[in-house]
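FIELD: query
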Amino acid sequence: MSLLLAIESSCDEMAMAVLKDQREFLSSVVASQIDIHAMYGGVVPEIASRKHIEAIGGVVIECLAQARERTGKADLSWSDLAAVSVTYAPGLVGALVVGAAFAKGLAWACDVPLIGVNHLEGHLYANKIACPDIKPPMVVSLVSGGHTMLVHVKDWGSYETMGSTLDDAVGEAFDKVAKAMGLGYPGGPLISALAEKGNPKAVRFPRALMHSGDLQFSLSGLKTSVMTYLQKEQQAGREVNKADVAASFQEAIVDVLVQKSVHALQETGLKKIVLAGGVSANKHLQTALADAVGGIGASLVHPTPILCTDNAVMIACRGYFMYQNGEYSPLDLNAVPSLKLG
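FIELD: result
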C-alpha cells in the first residue's frame, strides 16, 4: 500500500484524511468549529488556531482508527505512511501554522516526504474526486468564504486567474448579510434555505460590474445595499420580509457569477466550467449556471456537497499527484496566508 496522510487547517475546520494508492480513501475526519464561531457571527482567527491545537490530537487518532477499520489491519500505524501533505497556504496564519507544524513533525518522525499544498488547488482537485475523468483545459469559478475568482486551468498545475473580487468574497458577503438579518453563521446555507421561501424579484439589489466587459467582481456595494434597505425599512416601521430579502440578495449574486462565467467561457472558447469552493454547494447557483452554460453548448461540473467545503480529502488528492511527481517541500515549510493560485 502507498498511504498518504493529508491535513487541512486553513480556517475553522481541522480535517485529516488517509488516501490509499491514489483512489481509495481509508478515512476522512473533520472537526468543525461552527458552533463556537456562530456566537461571534464569524470566524475569530485566534480562537480558530487555539481550537485547532485542542482538536488535532483527537482528529489524528480517529483518522488512524478509521483507516485500520477500513483495511482490516489492526497494526496499521503512521510508520506505514509514504508521505504527509498539508495545506500551507492561503488562509488564517495561526490556523495554517498548527496544521503545518504537526505535518512537519510527523513527516520528520516517519522519515517520509512533506508536501505543501495550496488550499485553492485543493478545491480544484475536489472536482477530480467527484468526476475522475475530468481533464483540463477548463474554466473554474472558485467561490468561497475568502475567494471569488475565475481561473483558466490550462493543465493541472498551470493556472491563469482571469478575474477576481475587488473587495468582498461571495461567502464573506453571505455571512455579513446573514449577520445583518439576524440569521446566524455560516450565512450561505441559512440564506439559501430562507431564499427558497422568498420572491427573488421582490427587491432589486445592484449587480456591480455585471456588464463591465471584464471578469472582475465587486460585492461590497451589494452587501451595503442590503444593509441600507434593512435599516430604511426598520426606520419606516415596516416589517421586513426576510425571505424576500434573502432571495433577492442571492439572485443578485448568482446573476453576476453566471454572467461572468459565461463571459469567461466565451473569452477562452472552452466548453467546460467547473465550480469549486464552499459556495459551489449553493443549489440555485448550480442550476442557474448549468442552464446558462448549456445555452452556449457548454457543460458544468461541480463537487459533491461534502467536498465543497474545506476538507482534507481534496488536499490528499492534490498531494498524491505532487507525491508522484516528486514535488516535495522542505521541513522548514512556512505558512503563507495570502499566497495566490499558481
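FIELD: remark
The chain has a mean pLDDT of 95.
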